[in-house]
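User: Quick sanity check before I run a bigger batch. Here is a single chain. Can you write out its predicted 3D structure?
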Amino acid sequence: MTSQRTWPGNGDGTSPFVELDRQTWSRLADAMEEPLNEDDVQRIRGLGDQLNIQEIRDVYLPLSRLLNLYVAAAGQLHSATTTFLGERGRRTPFVIGVAGSVAVGKSTTARVLREMLRRWPDTPNVELVTTDGFLYPNAELARRGLMERKGFPESYNRRALLRFVSAVKSGADEVHAPMYSHLTYDILPDAEVVVRRPDVLIVEGLNVLAAARPRLDGRSGLAVSDFFDFSVYVDAKTKHIERWYVERFQSLRSRAFSNPESYFRRYADLSDAEAVETATRIWKSINEPNLLENVLPTRGRAQLVLTKDADHSIRRMLLRKV
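Assistant: Done. Predicted structure follows.
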């Protein structure tokens, strides 16, 4: 099953988004210096991603400049507001949300943005936190019967995630987040991520753009995205993401899965055919339903949608008008 890519419009040919192809978007970086080299790209690139220097120049360099402008504008608004109020409050971190499906490459996008934004002189301190750390521990998921729904909204401690982002945007000097291990597929009980008033915080995860859930009393609560200053959704056709997921699963057999401590050690010795069958089954039963039911519907809430082609390259940008 593939999802239909439709975009919100007003019925008269107008849209709240500006759509640009890669060639047009890339021209916005013509006068900018490339801050990353091939070694940086090798370090940042995720498994299965086709990230290269050309994509950095064409896509991420203009995006980093756009985000730099947004950060500067937020600083000007802060100065004007504090002057109006007669206060001297410190600026709070600029928070960017990065969302998208499993295997679409959102983690690579988040890492690239972190490295690029660190190179701008007014945002040297950029932190990245993934929402994996806010998954319930496996023991709790098993107690709730949710191990087969890991990654679905109900598998996260959403209150803890909301408190974390709220504390960051409140200007707390130090905020702590749980740490997740992709090797053991669980929360690390004796480790944590500490965020100390960065210039920019990037929050990456499947459901970071989800709307607030209605409260039992009928009132609307807060959503994590309410605290975002900018948001990015990494998009692709569902059939492409499925193929990337299966290919990544096959590659992991000889990498992370082969580690004796890996939660997925039982998959390391599968044959090629068995690996494809297993990965496809997991995709169809867990990741695709979660994408179609919970992740993809949040795409229209993003300020920028990066759309990938079958070869993993970003080909189209949809930017919400200001």
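The chain is about 35% helix and 20% strand.

User: Great, the batch can go ahead then.
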